[in-house]
Amino acid sequence: MTxxxxxxxxxxxxPLYIAYHDTEWGVPQRDSRMxxxxxxxxxxxxxxxxxxxxRKRDAFRTAFAGFDPHAVARFGDADxxxxxxxxxIVRARAKILATIRGAQIWxxxxxxxxxxxxxxxxxxxxxxxxxxxxxxIATSPLSERISKEMxxxxxxxxxxxxxxxxxxxxxxxxxxxxxxxRRDQVG
Length: 187
Hints:
CATH topology: Endonuclease III, domain 1
Number of helices: 9
Largest sheet: 2 strands, parallel
Strand content: under 5%
Helix content: 40-55%
Protein backbone atom coordinates (compact mmCIF):
# COMPACT_ATOMS: atom_id res chain seq x y z
CA MET A 1 0.00 0.00 0.00
CA THR A 2 1.36 3.41 -0.95
CA UNK A 3 0.43 6.61 0.75
CA UNK A 4 -0.07 9.56 -1.54
CA UNK A 5 0.96 13.00 -0.42
CA UNK A 6 -1.76 15.63 -0.63
CA UNK A 7 -0.68 18.97 -2.01
CA UNK A 8 -2.31 22.17 -3.12
CA UNK A 9 -4.01 21.41 -6.43
CA UNK A 10 -2.03 24.09 -8.31
CA UNK A 11 1.18 22.06 -7.87
CA UNK A 12 -0.11 19.59 -10.46
CA UNK A 13 2.30 16.93 -11.65
CA UNK A 14 5.22 18.98 -13.01
CA PRO A 15 8.30 17.95 -10.97
CA LEU A 16 9.57 21.55 -10.84
CA TYR A 17 6.23 22.84 -9.56
CA ILE A 18 6.01 20.02 -7.02
CA ALA A 19 9.52 20.73 -5.72
CA TYR A 20 8.74 24.47 -5.50
CA HIS A 21 5.51 23.77 -3.62
CA ASP A 22 7.08 21.23 -1.28
CA THR A 23 10.22 23.16 -0.34
CA GLU A 24 9.72 26.86 -0.93
CA TRP A 25 6.20 28.19 -1.52
CA GLY A 26 4.68 29.57 1.65
CA VAL A 27 7.79 29.15 3.80
CA PRO A 28 8.27 32.38 5.79
CA GLN A 29 11.22 34.14 4.16
CA ARG A 30 13.10 36.63 6.35
CA ASP A 31 16.12 37.31 4.14
CA SER A 32 15.99 40.81 2.61
CA ARG A 33 17.74 39.85 -0.60
CA MET A 34 15.55 36.81 -1.19
CA UNK A 35 12.38 38.76 -0.45
CA UNK A 36 13.45 41.29 -3.08
CA UNK A 37 14.38 38.58 -5.59
CA UNK A 38 10.96 36.99 -5.23
CA UNK A 39 9.22 40.35 -5.60
CA UNK A 40 11.13 41.04 -8.80
CA UNK A 41 10.39 37.57 -10.18
CA UNK A 42 6.70 38.01 -9.39
CA UNK A 43 6.85 41.24 -11.41
CA UNK A 44 8.37 39.37 -14.34
CA UNK A 45 5.59 36.80 -14.01
CA UNK A 46 2.86 39.37 -14.73
CA UNK A 47 0.92 38.09 -17.73
CA UNK A 48 2.71 34.73 -17.71
CA UNK A 49 2.45 31.44 -15.85
CA UNK A 50 4.61 31.09 -12.74
CA UNK A 51 6.05 27.84 -14.13
CA UNK A 52 7.59 29.92 -16.93
CA UNK A 53 9.46 31.98 -14.35
CA UNK A 54 10.50 28.90 -12.38
CA ARG A 55 11.95 27.34 -15.54
CA LYS A 56 13.92 30.54 -16.20
CA ARG A 57 14.90 31.30 -12.60
CA ASP A 58 18.51 30.15 -12.93
CA ALA A 59 18.91 32.27 -16.08
CA PHE A 60 17.36 35.24 -14.25
CA ARG A 61 19.81 34.78 -11.40
CA THR A 62 22.73 34.71 -13.80
CA ALA A 63 21.47 37.70 -15.79
CA PHE A 64 20.78 39.78 -12.67
CA ALA A 65 24.04 39.12 -10.79
CA GLY A 66 22.47 36.63 -8.39
CA PHE A 67 19.83 39.25 -7.59
CA ASP A 68 22.40 41.18 -5.59
CA PRO A 69 20.61 44.53 -5.22
CA HIS A 70 23.93 46.39 -4.90
CA ALA A 71 25.14 45.03 -8.25
CA VAL A 72 21.80 45.41 -10.04
CA ALA A 73 21.43 49.01 -8.79
CA ARG A 74 24.53 49.87 -10.83
CA PHE A 75 23.21 48.39 -14.10
CA GLY A 76 23.22 50.89 -16.93
CA ASP A 77 22.12 51.11 -20.55
CA ALA A 78 24.58 48.45 -21.73
CA ASP A 79 23.21 46.04 -19.13
CA UNK A 80 19.65 46.76 -20.23
CA UNK A 81 20.59 45.96 -23.83
CA UNK A 82 22.42 42.80 -22.70
CA UNK A 83 19.32 41.69 -20.82
CA UNK A 84 17.05 42.51 -23.75
CA UNK A 85 19.16 40.12 -25.83
CA UNK A 86 19.16 37.30 -23.28
CA UNK A 87 16.83 34.51 -24.47
CA UNK A 88 17.00 32.84 -21.05
CA ILE A 89 14.88 35.50 -19.35
CA VAL A 90 11.65 37.37 -20.02
CA ARG A 91 12.81 40.19 -22.25
CA ALA A 92 10.45 42.98 -21.29
CA ARG A 93 12.20 46.35 -21.11
CA ALA A 94 9.74 47.82 -18.62
CA LYS A 95 10.22 44.86 -16.26
CA ILE A 96 14.01 45.00 -16.61
CA LEU A 97 14.01 48.73 -15.84
CA ALA A 98 11.64 48.12 -12.91
CA THR A 99 14.06 45.54 -11.51
CA ILE A 100 17.00 47.94 -11.75
CA ARG A 101 14.96 50.69 -10.10
CA GLY A 102 13.77 48.22 -7.48
CA ALA A 103 17.40 47.44 -6.64
CA GLN A 104 18.13 51.14 -6.29
CA ILE A 105 15.16 51.55 -3.94
CA TRP A 106 16.32 48.53 -1.92
CA UNK A 107 19.76 50.15 -1.58
CA UNK A 108 18.25 53.51 -0.63
CA UNK A 109 16.21 51.81 2.08
CA UNK A 110 19.32 50.04 3.38
CA UNK A 111 21.33 53.29 3.35
CA UNK A 112 18.56 54.89 5.43
CA UNK A 113 18.84 52.06 7.97
CA UNK A 114 15.72 50.19 6.88
CA UNK A 115 16.07 46.48 6.17
CA UNK A 116 13.85 45.32 3.32
CA UNK A 117 12.80 42.28 5.38
CA UNK A 118 11.70 44.51 8.25
CA UNK A 119 9.69 46.63 5.83
CA UNK A 120 8.01 43.56 4.29
CA UNK A 121 7.09 41.97 7.59
CA UNK A 122 6.06 45.25 9.27
CA UNK A 123 2.61 44.99 7.71
CA UNK A 124 1.86 41.87 9.78
CA UNK A 125 3.96 42.67 12.86
CA UNK A 126 6.27 39.85 11.77
CA UNK A 127 3.50 37.26 11.94
CA UNK A 128 2.34 34.85 9.24
CA UNK A 129 -1.28 35.33 8.21
CA UNK A 130 -2.87 31.91 8.13
CA UNK A 131 -5.92 31.86 5.89
CA UNK A 132 -8.58 29.22 6.39
CA UNK A 133 -7.54 27.25 3.30
CA UNK A 134 -11.02 27.11 1.80
CA UNK A 135 -10.82 30.02 -0.64
CA UNK A 136 -8.60 30.99 -3.53
CA ILE A 137 -8.15 34.74 -3.65
CA ALA A 138 -5.98 36.96 -5.81
CA THR A 139 -5.85 40.12 -3.69
CA SER A 140 -6.61 41.23 -0.17
CA PRO A 141 -6.92 44.52 1.68
CA LEU A 142 -3.39 43.87 2.96
CA SER A 143 -1.94 43.29 -0.52
CA GLU A 144 -3.63 46.52 -1.60
CA ARG A 145 -2.02 48.39 1.32
CA ILE A 146 1.44 46.92 0.68
CA SER A 147 1.10 47.58 -3.06
CA LYS A 148 0.20 51.21 -2.40
CA GLU A 149 3.21 51.69 -0.11
CA MET A 150 5.58 49.97 -2.55
CA UNK A 151 4.31 52.15 -5.39
CA UNK A 152 4.71 55.23 -3.20
CA UNK A 153 8.35 54.28 -2.73
CA UNK A 154 8.80 53.91 -6.49
CA UNK A 155 8.57 50.16 -7.07
CA UNK A 156 6.91 49.07 -10.33
CA UNK A 157 4.99 45.88 -11.19
CA UNK A 158 3.73 45.68 -7.62
CA UNK A 159 -0.03 45.80 -8.08
CA UNK A 160 -2.22 44.12 -5.46
CA UNK A 161 -2.41 40.81 -7.38
CA UNK A 162 1.37 40.57 -7.84
CA UNK A 163 1.91 41.55 -4.21
CA UNK A 164 -0.57 38.91 -3.03
CA UNK A 165 1.15 36.18 -5.07
CA UNK A 166 4.47 37.35 -3.60
CA UNK A 167 3.02 37.30 -0.06
CA UNK A 168 1.98 33.69 -0.63
CA UNK A 169 5.34 32.72 -2.13
CA UNK A 170 7.41 34.18 0.71
CA UNK A 171 5.14 32.95 3.48
CA UNK A 172 3.73 36.24 4.70
CA UNK A 173 0.44 34.50 3.96
CA UNK A 174 -0.06 30.77 4.45
CA UNK A 175 -2.51 29.81 1.72
CA UNK A 176 -1.75 26.09 1.61
CA UNK A 177 -5.11 24.39 1.22
CA UNK A 178 -6.97 22.23 3.70
CA UNK A 179 -5.42 18.77 3.53
CA UNK A 180 -2.13 19.94 1.99
CA UNK A 181 0.72 18.35 3.92
CA ARG A 182 2.60 21.70 3.99
CA ARG A 183 -0.23 23.71 5.59
CA ASP A 184 0.75 22.95 9.19
CA GLN A 185 4.47 22.75 8.48
CA VAL A 186 5.03 26.31 7.27
CA GLY A 187 3.14 28.30 9.90
